[in-house]
């Protein structure tokens, strides 16, 4: 029975799509045809086969998943979502270090849905990525784990906070020190003094992915396994991806410590670092 159900479902795109559609609720044949963009002659034989295997139930003109059909389809959807994400982004993910994504979220990577890849163009290599800038400036809340330094970051995130956007930034110690250097010290001090912004330090986050979790999008930049960091991100606007990104950020924020002000931060004091104070 197991083999026959697997063949029944996965050897027909239409049968699979009928099950996924009805997972959202019962529908009549006309609605099924419209949503699947298919004719009655192509859909009805597939529905008949699903009914014969007790995956669908017909009540007058309405079709719904049977109890068996619902159990199978609820298990099937996460697998299909995962396959779609990995297949769509195979060129990016194949050579990336996924080990820093906690298992409970890696198992749910299918929640990312449709992603786009963004990266700096060669003629704008030292600028910020326009797609990110545009969406960040339109956000109401933005939280980020930043694993590399960019000289435009301190002023950019300060400007976001000045616009009233809630901004939380988490850094590895080595990157945070760069923000506290002379060229960026006053910008960082101003950022810390604002009521809608905060900075945290994660002492166990070296070489971890850069994560941006906003209310309207998420993006992640994973380190390549065998080459230099390349500022190439996956970005998604789907609700499931936004929730996934917030969970990932929260996972690292829980093991981080909030920085109250520059002067009291022990990690950049001469006694702790062995360096001269900036």
UniProtKB/TrEMBL annotation:
On the tree of life, the source organism's domain of life is Archaea
Start and end residues of each Methanogenesis regulatory protein FilR1 middle domain: 125-254
InterPro entries, sorted: FilR1_middle_dom, Tscrpt_reg_HTH_AF0396-typ3, WH-like_DNA-bd_sf, WH_DNA-bd_sf
The family database entries (SUPFAM superfamilies) matched by this protein are listed as:
Winged helix' DNA-binding domain
Q: Which Pfam families match?
A: FilR1_middle
According to UniProt, the name of this protein is Methanogenesis regulatory protein FilR1 middle domain-containing protein
């Amino acid at each position: 029975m197991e083999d026959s159900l697997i063949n029944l479902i996965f050897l027909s795109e239409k049968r699979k799509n009928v099950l996924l559609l009805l997972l959202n609720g019962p529908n009549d044949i006309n609605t099924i045809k419209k949503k699947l963009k298919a004719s009655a002659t192509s859909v009805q034989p597939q529905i008949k086969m699903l009914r014969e295997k007790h995956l669908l139930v017909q009540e007058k003109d309405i079709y719904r998943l049977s109890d068996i059909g619902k159990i199978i389809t609820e298990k099937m959807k996460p697998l299909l979502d995962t396959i779609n994400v990995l297949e769509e982004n195979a060129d990016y993910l194949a050579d990336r270090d996924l080990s820093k994504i906690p298992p409970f979220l890696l198992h749910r990577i299918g929640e990312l849905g449709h992603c786009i890849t963004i990266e700096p163009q060669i003629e704008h290599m030292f600028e910020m990525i326009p797609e990110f800038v545009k969406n960040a400036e339109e956000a109401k809340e933005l939280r980020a784990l930043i694993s590399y330094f960019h000289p435009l970051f301190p002023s950019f995130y300060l400007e976001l906070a000045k616009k009233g956007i809630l901004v939380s930034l988490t850094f590895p110690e080595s990157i945070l020190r760069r923000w506290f250097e002379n060229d960026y010290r006053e910008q960082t001090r101003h950022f810390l003094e604002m009521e809608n912004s905060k900075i945290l330090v994660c002492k166990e986050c070296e070489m971890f992915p850069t994560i941006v979790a906003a209310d309207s999008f998420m993006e992640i930049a994973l380190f390549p396994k065998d080459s230099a960091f390349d500022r190439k991100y996956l970005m998604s606007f789907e609700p499931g991806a936004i929730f996934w990104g917030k969970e990932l950020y929260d996972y690292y924020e829980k093991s981080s410590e909030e920085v109250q002000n520059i002067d009291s931060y022990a990690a950049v004091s001469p006694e702790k670092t062995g360096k001269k104070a900036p």
